Amino acid sequence: MGYDIDRFVGYVNEGLLCSICRDVLEDPLQAPCEHAFCTACIHGWLVHHSNCPEDRQVIDVSLLRPLYRYMKNDLNRLQLHCRNREYGCEMICSLESIDRHERECEYSQIPCSNAGCTVQIERRNLDGHLAVCEYRSRECPNGCGYTILSAEDTQHNCVAELRTELELLRSEMICKVEEAKHEMESRLDSQRRHMVQKESILQNEIEELKSQISRLMSDVRSLMAVERQHRQELEQAELEKREL
User: Fold this and answer.
1) Which one, of 1, 31, 6, 2, lies nearest residue 16 by Cα?
2) What's the CATH number where 121 sits?
């Protein structure tokens, strides 16, 4: 939908009106036949039709283009009243800057920022409303540190609130201790399994070393036996040589 033509000051060129809603173009698009539409209007039209609503020429979403620059400039220069005129705003500004003004307009109706409050209030009166809003929150004046709503003032009990807070803290602490305990047990189990695995590997390596040492000792004994035999043979040969 476009901008209500009654909001505008002075004459508005026919070419700047949407061919569907007949209001001033908002976020405009133009068909190849040069008829212009609000984006929302033409997209809604093309859901059920495949032609231009003015001259019935076939059009498709892919054929829509932004408005010509000179037409866009003419559109942006149009002067119009703020939409909050009925609440007292007398601002008149260009279409190009109207959105920025209305986002900050003091007469805009905005919701109360307090949770649970459904009041819509003018921006300029918001601070006054927040000061008396029954849903406003504040810290307990007795020093317990609890945040209370004005509507709960008569029901607030510092001792009860502190006990509740203490119970919550105690429950959280117990949960954290249990979590830390489970985590430590898990780590210990993991380390224990790792140590058992390492011990098994080391034991296997020790057995292998023992086996190697045993083989080496056997080889040494064999070599010593061979050496004794060779020495005896040499001694025997020496005796035979002397006899000859």
Assistant:
1) 2
2) 3.30.40.10
